[in-house]
Amino acid sequence: MKKINYGRKSRIMENETLNKCCCGNSEKSSCVEEKNNLCPVCEKQGALVKNITVKHLVLDELTEQVGGNDYFLCMNDECGITYYDTESNIKFNKQQLKVPIWFKKDANPKYACYCSKVTEEQIINAVVKDGATNMKEILKITGAMSNSQCQKKNPLGKCCHQIIQDAIDKGLSMK
């Protein structure tokens, strides 16, 4: 990346960019250059996922293979690879996980909330059949987000709020 220096303003913009790339997280491992997060199979961009998440979601017999590095989750719905580490060249496919990845092709069940085992279908039904229109109503009807262990149970290692909101929006568009 070519950097053009505009003095003080450039440094401020550079700091803002660094802060944004880490989502407020100051840990160095959260800021990885874009070229290092491409899936080794489909070459699409991946999302950084903490090591603890991968260790909890791979099959028990594969836990030791995970090692100590953080991983990337391949975000391509067509690709059979889930987690990969470009440094150690370790990769796991869909069949090597305890749970299906909600956005991957043929995911069944398609969880929106992994902690409470609430599916996208349950959320859509709560909207279409039960008349829910917002997050608060969905949480009350489905019990989603009531057993928060996102770092260990959600494939991204973070809160499922956005996935649930996307399912609510999908249900509202069906009305």
TrEMBL record:
Residues 113-166 form the BFD-like [2Fe-2S]-binding domain. Coiled coil: none annotated. It holds the Pfam family zf_CopZ. Residues 36-98 form the CopZ zinc binding domain. This is BFD-like [2Fe-2S]-binding domain-containing protein.
